[in-house]
Amino acid sequence: MSDLLSKIAVPGDIRMLEIPELSTLAHEVRQFIIDIVAVKEGHLGASLGVVELTIALHYVFNTPDDLLVWDVGHQAYGHKILTGRKNDFHTNRQKGGISGFPNRKESIYDTFGVGHSSTAISAALGMAIASKLQKKTKRQHVAVVGDASIASGMAFEGLNHAGVSDANILVILNDNAIGIDPSVGALKDYLTSVKSGINPPENNMIKSLNFDYSGPIDGHDLPRLIRELKRLKKVKGPKFLHVITTKGKGLKQAEENQVKYHAPGKFDNLTGELLPNDEGHLPAKYQDVFGLTLVELATKNQKIVGITPAMPTGSSMKFMMDAFPERGFDVGIAEQHAVTLAAGMATQGLLPFCAIYSTFLQRAYDQVIHDVALQQLPVVFCLDRAGLVGEDGATHHGLYDLAYLNCIPQIQIVAPINELELRNLLYTVQLGIEYPIAIRYPRGRGVLKDWKKPFEKLDLKKVKMLKKGTSSAFLTTGTIGNNVISAFERATNNKWGHYHFLSVKPIDETVLHELCKIYKKLVTIEDGTVKGGFGSIIANFVAENYTDVELEIKGVPDEYIEHATVVEQQEYCGIDTQAIVEIINN
Ligand SMILES: Cc1ncc(C[n+]2csc(CCOP(=O)(O)OP(=O)(O)O)c2C)c(N)n1
Ligand SMILES: CC(=O)[C@@H](O)[C@H](O)COP(=O)(O)O
Ligand SMILES: [Mg+2]
Q1: Is the ipTM of this complex over 0.85?
Q2: Whole-model pTM?
């Protein structure tokens, strides 16, 4: 059996191969990805789908001199393996290992740091304009964008600019008709019509934007890809190649169940079958508590609508979309639109639950302020993946929401401590809210055996005393409070108090005054940035009112937190259970 992959240290080695050998290399790269992701986990389907494209790009273009930008970057495993990181690939997404996304610090072949989608066209155009100004006239600039990502506003902004430039940029649309969930929208319909040959060539929207358009071509046909890329290399100005691929290509189960195999967890590398897990007895995921509760509420409350920008499975908004197809909306990768769509609905008396990962709401900051809060519209932001998210790393943590929302007038921010409180919060807000509200909760499982209890109306401002102390107390918000609860079970000294702040904004100042009178020392703990978050709010209060209270703020330091498990990340930040035990014992 041939072993070409072991001979490829850098893309220059690929260029030494004959074209017929490249198919063998593709087979080996695919198997290499499968073997490692089966054990180490990570994104699978997207990388399997672009193995041939990756090889063709490094074969035709003179990387790293020519600049290759991957959009999102979850499909770049083949690229990493062929650009000097084959031997490190088993450390993918682990503490101290390589990142799951292209990262400029990691390799000269990673021209642009990614993780959030739809940035590649703008970045590659910026590089192309820089090359022109710097008289690097031979340099090529290539952006590879998926069909779901190109539908995002930012990608359109890039195309709009590139189309009137003479920049030497090639945009490759990797069209597999799916994002994480099936692609949506009119653009998807357009792409389907192009692929099925029913779109008249004169209606080609990419040509109308002044691109030299070619395709669609089979993205698994290496000779064809290479021919076309070589031709395009000689064409000046903005070019666009439409490539058709199959997500999960080469692994039957991944091709057949593309949503599940986007990031499948552990599986058998030979059969492709998912490995049985013993998670049945574990607490429910916050996402499922959210999604299932929303359906229960929407059954009685006709005002409720649900919106997700491209994450129906991840956020569990799919439950609402299945139960009430007319009231559940997946708008594609369009966070800004999702927020303003919710605002529009709210003006007409609907109550939108807009489920967005905290990290992706960063995209729609102006919309939160200008379209929702300023107009005091009752929109419920369900801020999923708040806090540290683990293996996706720095691009995906939800660490800034407390800080970036706290400074906006007319918005409430709440963070439940467990699944039951999340459920009751959802119930309470649908009874009616005067202001927009953001409910933040983390990725993954809760802490309770049973969350499906009869609904209870909550006092949204109430601070809950979880344990009375003598001279020191922990103040927490959200699920990180469970680390304090666990620490109390382990610690020897039991004199600390613990208070759970469901509401971060508005903060209950009456209770804060009481606490500052009882306790000499307060320690705030949050799974958000120490700068500007919960601890900062308490610090402002203490500084304005008291001189005799010692305050310590524990949270995520003012730096980017790399990929690792959530527990390892918490340890690094000093907010894990053991760190709290040590505070208590010292
Ligand atoms: C701004 C933003 N919103 C949402 C996501 C979550 N996300 C990651 S990959 C993905 C789908 C991408 O689909 P596509 O561009 O078609 O690439 P494919 O996975 O098919 O290769 C989504 C929605 C993201 N990374 N960035
Ligand atoms: C690449 C990307 O942005 C998503 O695939 C992300 O990794 C999903 O995160 P969750 O696994 O938390 O849904
Ligand atoms: Mg796609």
Answers
A1: yes
A2: 0.97
